[in-house]
Write a structure and sequence with these properties.
By secondary structure, this protein is an alpha+beta fold. It has ten helices and six strands.
Length: 220
């Protein structure tokens, strides 16, 4: 029996489907979400903003290789650290994180993929309602801005209920954590997106700059 098992085990392991690490997200001590294999040999950190067009372009352009192959295989992990630039960005971050570890990556991708639609709406809404919003407490302003921009609709598409979204946008402690994450960014982060690769700053803010750096680090 042991001999037979020893002969069959390699065949069983070969037939077993490889784990898709791109669907795995874990919350880190600093509040950031790490997407992929926590033990990946190549560790990429992104400081990003949902209201940054360059961040949106990076998310879309890098997706097929970074998420679709490198993270999926377990060779690379991506830790997404929020760099909050404005109230619309904060609202978008709270909506993305409202999906929790299981839904964060997909919801974050959806927010970036639809950035060209909701970001102009956010700017128009903010300009039209600035005076009225001064009378609202901060959580109510965030909720109203998220609705006006279309971010709540994105959250609903991700399966989040209105009650859940309301609770997330009213979570001042979570909002404070995101602001603290921004303040804790290293001096190398002077704009978004900014990247650290295995703990070192990587020059460039585009996928065409980051992909060769990943390859040089062994991610192929």
């Amino acid at each position: 029996m042991r001999i037979l098992l020893a002969l069959l085990l390699p065949l069983i392991l070969a037939a077993a489907p490889a784990r898709d690490w791109s669907t795995v997200a874990t919350k880190q001590a600093n509040g950031a979400y790490l997407i992929g294999n926590p033990a990946a040999p190549v560790k990429l950190v992104e400081y990003g903003s949902y209201t940054c067009p360059h961040c949106g372009a990076f998310s879309v352009e890098s997706g097929p290789v970074l998420r679709g192959r490198l993270i999926r295989s377990g060779k690379v992990s991506l830790e997404y650290r929020h760099y909050v630039r404005d109230s619309a960005d904060l609202a978008a971050a709270l909506v993305a994180r409202c999906a929790g570890p299981k839904g964060f990556a997909a919801t974050s991708d959806r927010i970036f993929a639809t950035q060209r639609d909701w970001l102009p709406r956010a700017a128009d809404w903010s300009q039209a309602n600035a005076e009225r919003m001064r009378m609202y407490p901060a959580p109510a302003r965030l909720r109203a801005e998220a609705e006006g921009a279309g971010l709540l609709a994105i959250g609903r598409t991700a399966g989040l209920t209105d009650a859940r979204l309301d609770a997330c946008l009213a979570d001042e402690a979570e909002a404070d954590r995101l602001v603290a994450m921004t303040a804790a960014a290293p001096p190398s982060v002077v704009g978004t997106p900014s990247f650290l690769l295995n703990g070192r700053a990587v020059p460039g803010a585009s996928w065409s700059a980051i992909q060769p750096a990943l390859a040089a680090a062994g991610a192929r």
